[in-house]
TrEMBL record:
Transmembrane segments: 5-24, 44-65, 85-102, 122-146, 167-186
Organism name: Curtobacterium luteum
Residue ranges annotated for the Heme-copper oxidase subunit III family profile domain, each copy included: 1-187
Recorded topology in the membrane: Multi-pass membrane protein
Record keyword Cell cycle present: no
Protein name per UniProt: cytochrome-c oxidase
Assigned protein family: Belongs to the cytochrome c oxidase subunit 3 family.
Signal sequence range: none
Domain of life: Bacteria
EC number: 7.1.1.9
Keywords, ordered alphabetically: Cell membrane, Membrane, Transmembrane, Transmembrane helix
């Protein structure tokens, strides 16, 4: 229950970031037209697909945790346990963060920085805070993986940890879908 309440507060935090983005965009439409042309939409689309697919891997980990299956019983992905699926999820999340860093470097070379304009501030604030949340999720996966390896008897407590971490990860994915639609697709 505590996680759901906390995620509710995170919804309000990101709602504030969306409000900042839309307010600044409405006051400087010409700036937004110029700066959004510098975005690599195909690259961001691939990065988005990777993050969204990571939610599926995360959910497969939850299904395994609910079966109390910590580790794989075969090399077949259909027989993977929680640790293998969370490892895949972790790798996909790390690829997403690396993609964001790469995108930031490209935009910086294009002159889009945090202090260059209202667009730069809004872009880096919204995507940067999301990136920090993804990084937090990656840390949570490492802790959950460690708990999976350390548990002598994997039970309801450990499975609940996996489920709670998945709630957070799915939340982060849904927020990114909204950010992607607003920042990259909405013209």
């Amino acid at each position: 229950m505590g996680t759901i309440v906390w995620l509710g507060s995170e919804v309000m935090f990101f709602a504030g970031l969306f409000a900042i983005y839309f307010t600044l965009r409405s006051t400087s439409p010409e700036l937004w037209a110029t700066e959004t042309a510098k975005l690599e939409v195909p690259f961001a689309s691939v990065n988005t697909i990777i993050l969204v697919l990571s939610s599926f891997a995360c959910q497969f980990a939850v299904f395994a945790a609910e079966r109390f299956q910590v580790h794989r019983t075969s090399w077949s992905p259909f027989k993977w346990g929680m640790t293998e699926w969370f490892f895949v999820t972790y790798c996909m999340g790390a690829i997403f963060v690396c993609g964001q860093v790469f995108e930031y470097a490209n935009l910086w070379h294009e002159g889009v920085t945090l202090s260059s304009s209202a667009y730069g501030s809004a872009f880096y604030m919204t995507t940067g805070f999301h990136g920090l949340h993804v990084t937090g999720g990656l840390i949570a996966f490492l802790l959950t993986l460690g708990r999976g390896f350390a548990a002598k008897n994997f039970g309801h407590k450990e499975a609940t940890t996996a489920i709670v971490v998945s709630y957070y990860w799915h939340f982060v994915d849904v927020v990114w879908i909204g950010l992607f639609a607003v920042i990259y697709l909405l013209k």
